[in-house]
Amino acid sequence: MIFTVAVDGPAAAGKGTISRAVAAEFGFAHLDTGLLYRAVGVVSEARAADPAQVARSLTPEDLARDDLRSLAAGDAASRVAVIPAVRAALVDFQRSFARRAGGAVLDGRDIGTVICPEAEVKLFVTASAEARAHRRWLEVGGDAAQVLAEVRARDERDMNRAEAPLRPAADAVLLDTTDLSVAEAVARAAALIRARL
Ligand code: C5P
């Protein structure tokens, strides 16, 4: 069975949590595409290398680095994500993952719009910037005001770039998680998938 669930939305809206949960529930494979951009950002900075070249030769070791979850890595990711040659280098891998046999959930920014416009289910997961910054702060700690400023800066960069900007696909279902528990958000996503299986 070929069945793709595209989950897009801004930083810390709950995409990853929802994607992991529904992938487990339906037995689908899951790809966190942000990790690809994080690895390209961090590795190209560490080696002072051309990000497009790094994107073309990403290794499993690059993706397994333990510093990819930091705020700095998210920032580095969104800076290399504006480069068309970086995005182009990552397209084929993501598309074949999306259409692999057995079903797949991909979360990112452009899955429903660019990577897999034919996805059977498209979700656009959002939450207020304050709610998202608070969740990120619970994970990473530090100065709350600075976390909020970084979340806003990243939204701004992701929404306003020329190449594959963050926006909902015309046929995406919006899921605002500001006032939802994790269980409620997952249940809504799962109900949508079940209805289209
Ligand atoms: O989702 P995550 O916070 O890990 O993504 C890090 C950054 O990678 C995003 O802010 C965005 O700039 C970029 N990204 C992207 N397209 C994707 C996934 C992530 O441009 N499909």
TrEMBL record:
CDD domains associated with the record: CMPK
Key words of the record: ATP-binding, Cytoplasm, Kinase, Nucleotide-binding, Transferase
One term under GO cellular component: cytoplasm
InterPro entries (UniProt xref): Cytidylate_kin, Cytidylate_kinase_dom, P-loop_NTPase
Tree of life domain: Bacteria
Main location group: cytoplasm
Keyword match Kinase: yes
Protein name: Cytidylate kinase
Organism: Falsigemmobacter intermedius
